[in-house]
């Protein structure tokens, strides 16, 4: 496994692999890798070559957010990549990605103006810009993103379509702890009490799925039931909990097409996100536990 710090090193490797006719899969991450990231890497092994980028992208953090405290453990990340068949880690410094006079951005409208985009106004501009750069640097055939960040996945798919990137974007299911909490690098911030309180996210999701499967189609009723459940836990504060069309991200009142039920919830000072997609026609949501974390 190679570890590249510069864009030039990555390009040299990619050139050699391309000359050999090999296919390339990219898994973009911010590091502090866990089983969620690992599932993306495993899926990416359907390519001949797997590239993982590890870069805590300053552009996607707001001024009051956790850029400086974001957890990092490169030694452990390298181990996980090595054990899972990664061929190349791209781990640039910020200056390698952004020259001091950097001034070109990928700025999407509409899809970025809902959900996380409302509370993190600069976030998706940073995400779209860095992912575009990674696509240009690595030129992958396929790129892998988690459904945990459902809005991000929808945005990247739209960006690829709108800007004609020659890459297939593949969404991978949410990986959870045994008790249901979605795996996240930010779970590290939680103390013991907050870790217990954080279960209201996944529990409210189970409640929401049950209500939908029983036939409820009024989104206000569903949102209220889920919010009431979450707000009964004193350590948490809801940032948003909304039901949107899973492609357009527009809020829906009557549930008719596949919908995304998405939330961001502060547990103490830690902001966690979670979601599920519900397909009305099939009266079915995607399975809650993946085979990897079924006990
Ligand atoms: P991050 O390092 O948090 O930027 O995440 C990198 C990628 O891993 C993103 O595409 C995330 O959606 C994905 N990811 C993070 N946590 C999970 C999880 N629990 N299950 C599946 N994918 C995840």
UniProtKB/TrEMBL annotation:
Pfam families recorded: Pantoate_ligase (PF02569)
EC number: 6.3.2.1
GO CC terms in record: cytosol
UniProt keyword list: ATP-binding, Cytoplasm, Ligase, Nucleotide-binding, Pantothenate biosynthesis
InterPro entries per UniProt: Pantoate_ligase, Pantoate_ligase_C, Rossmann-like_a/b/a_fold
GO molecular function terms noted in the UniProt entry: ATP binding; pantoate-beta-alanine ligase activity
GO BP: any one term: pantothenate biosynthetic process
Binding site for (R)-pantoate: 60, 152
Catalytic reaction list: (R)-pantoate + beta-alanine + ATP = (R)-pantothenate + AMP + diphosphate + H(+)
Keyword Magnesium: no
Binding site for beta-alanine: 60
Active site feature: 37 (proton donor)
Binding positions for ATP per the UniProt entry: 30-37, 146-149, 175, 183-186
Subcellular location: Cytoplasm
Pathway: Cofactor biosynthesis; (R)-pantothenate biosynthesis; (R)-pantothenate from (R)-pantoate and beta-alanine: step 1/1
Role, per record: Catalyzes the condensation of pantoate with beta-alanine in an ATP-dependent reaction via a pantoyl-adenylate intermediate.
Further remark: The reaction proceeds by a bi uni uni bi ping pong mechanism.
Subunit structure: Homodimer.
Family: Belongs to the pantothenate synthetase family.
Protein name as catalogued: Pantothenate synthetase
